[in-house]
Amino acid sequence: MKKDLLLRRRSTGEAELMDDPDCDPVALGATYRLFGVINPLVASWRPIYRSRIRPVLRAAALEGRVATLLDVGCGGGDVARCLARWAKRDGIDLTVTAIDPDRRAHAWAEAHDHGAGIDYRAQSSTELVVAGERFDVVVSNHVLHHLSSTELAELLTDSAALARSLCVHNDLRRSRVAWLLYWVATLPLVRTRTFARFDGLLSIRRSYRPDELTRAVPAGWCVTRQRFFRLLTVLSQPEPGRTSLSQPS
Ligand SMILES: C[S@@+](CC[C@H](N)C(=O)[O-])C[C@H]1O[C@@H](n2cnc3c(N)ncnc32)[C@H](O)[C@@H]1O
Q1: Ligand 1: which residue has its CA nearest to atom 4?
Q2: Closest ligand 1 atom, CA of 124?
Q3: For the ranges 79-83, 139-143, 164-168, 187-191, which has the lowest average pLDDT?
Q4: Ligand 1 pocket by C-beta < 6 Å: which residues?
Q5: Which residues are paired to 97 by β-bridges?
Q6: Residue of the nearest CA to atom 10 in ligand 1?
Q7: Mutual orientation of helices 78-89 and 54-62 as an angle, nearest 10°?
Q8: CATH superfamily of the domain spanning 24-236
Q9: Domain residue spans in the chain?
Q10: What residue owns the CA closest to ligand 1's atom 27?
Q11: Euclidean distance between CA atoms 126 and 42, whole angstroms
Q12: What confidence tens digit (pLDDT) does each residue in 54-77 have?
């Protein structure tokens, strides 16, 4: 297939190596581990936690409830563990659930919880909706670019049904500069047994530009740019009688 080197169009026809059910399990484990290093560097969850997520969790605490958060498509689970750690440091009682229907991801995440106490489940968002589950906050990291347009619509419908107050889907923003920076930064990985370089570069090519994602999401969702080549897709839905708490301060 001819590649669009300027990244003018989304790449939708190429599969990530880690999605191959027969891929090298050692390389897959190394990839989950490396994403645990790369995500904190590039995904900017800290400002999202402080400005959008923490106020919602604190509001739950004020109501005398244990706050709940769901990470959809958790992969190796590092984002869920990070959010749990920050809430604990802030003295917030939080239950974190992290789902991924990929059993390899689920097994790896569960084996690498390191005492974070996350409830990992090998389930999809749709299964949780069918089970009638609800969470104060629903998040995802690097999931939207992964999906077909039908799957994207389903995931947004699911997450809106699952979230009491706030959904934040944090993903890459397609950019030639981001692709070049990642290409250079991951040169040391060229001869290593991991998919982090190939799949990361492909993920950037698969990701959306702000106008494309804005057109793809239903009414009510807001697409905003975030530093380090990110896009946030946010739905803030105050329950009746509650003021929205999810606007960044
Ligand atoms: C690219 S991985 C991202 C992993 C992780 N969040 C990270 O940032 O490293 C996307 C994951 O989303 C999962 N996924 C896709 N659709 C999903 C859904 N509807 N519910 C739960 N997980 C889903 C896939 O199984 C895959 O493991």
Answers
A1: 75
A2: 20
A3: 187-191
A4: 35, 39, 72-76, 79, 99-102, 105, 124-125, 141-143, 146, 155
A5: 70, 119
A6: 143
A7: 50
A8: Vaccinia Virus protein VP39 (3.40.50.150)
A9: 24-236
A10: 75
A11: 28
A12: 999 999 999 999 999 999 999 999
